[in-house]
Amino acid sequence: MDPKAMYKLSYGLFVLTTKFFDKDNGCIINTAIQAASEPNQISICVNKANLTHDMVMQSREFTVSIISQDATFDLFKRFGFQSGKDADKFEGFSDKVKRGANGIYYVTEGTNAYISVKVEKTEDLGSHTMFVGTITDMEVLSDSPSATYAYYFDNIKPKPEAVGKTPEGETIWRCRICGYEYVGEELPEDFICPVCKHPAEDFEKVVK
Ligand code: FE
């Protein structure tokens, strides 16, 4: 069995946003799909380690802004590589968001559409929860093509710096998603990237 088969699945990329009382938050997901057409429904799967997950559980409403090929790496850093527990992800970003009819922010730059959803069902899948809901509002924002996960890796994410050799010959495990580096001969199986929350399977071994 080759676990790399998982990388052959294709995905879009989205900024998932929600609002619970006065708190706005959001994160990057790659799991929004149209789940049914009659009635028109969207599903998303969100990692339970994300604060946005807990907030959608409570608010039962969310918006997905569809990331386009115009997006910069800054958008991914802002929503993907910091936690809403420590930072206000919308600070200094007010000119790149608007509130939709549901009162939740959608992102207006580096995106080509947004879809607002009212949660009807949740399913506990272990690491993630699946949220399924009906669409309450949606608009097209730009004609720019949607960014796929593969497009992000090839064109948006900075290429990792080449590694030199050190006399110590340390082994580095690098997160494929965000570039975080863990130093150690073996990466613990249950390791979670402290930056982007991806699991040990998303690390690759780099020998310095
Ligand atoms: Fe990471």
Features of this protein?
208 residues, mainly beta, 38% strand, Rubrerythrin, domain 2, 2 domains, seven-stranded antiparallel beta sheet, globular, single chain, three-stranded antiparallel beta sheet
Q: How would you describe this structure to a colleague?
A:
The structure is a single chain. By secondary structure, the protein is mainly β. It has three helices and twelve strands, in the order E-E-E-E-H-E-H-E-E-E-E-H-E-E-E. The protein has two domains: 3-154, Electron Transport, Fmn-binding Protein, Chain A (Pnp Oxidase, Chain A), CATH 2.30.110; 159-208, Rubrerythrin, domain 2 (Single Sheet). It has helices spanning 51-59, 73-80, 149-156, and strands spanning 14-20, 23-29, 33-37, 40-47, 61-67, 97-99, 105-107, 111-124, 128-140, 171-175, 181-183, 203-207. The chain has a seven-stranded antiparallel sheet with strand order 2-1-5-8-9-4-3. It has a three-stranded antiparallel sheet with strand order 11-10-12, with no helix packed on it. Strand 10 and strand 11 (181-183) form a beta hairpin. The chain binds fe (iii) ion. Fe (iii) ion (FE) is lined by residues 175, 177-178, 180, 193, 195-196, 198.
